[in-house]
Specification:
about 50 residues, alpha+beta, two-stranded antiparallel ribbon
């Protein structure tokens, strides 16, 4: 997906589940989860 975003908008990057967890903690989220989906996809979800 990053390649698609780079082509469309000129800016993109990949991030890990650990990056997501750190950003959520900094933003005040109390619960976060990375859910592995079919293939190479995942969903990152956070709750305040």
């Amino acid at each position: 997906m990053s390649l698609n975003m780079l082509i469309e908008f000129g800016e993109a990057f990949d991030y890990t589940g650990a990056d997501f967890r750190a950003w959520c903690g900094e933003a005040g989220f109390k619960k976060f989860e990375v859910i592995h989906l079919a293939g190479p996809s995942s969903a990152a979800v956070a709750w305040k």
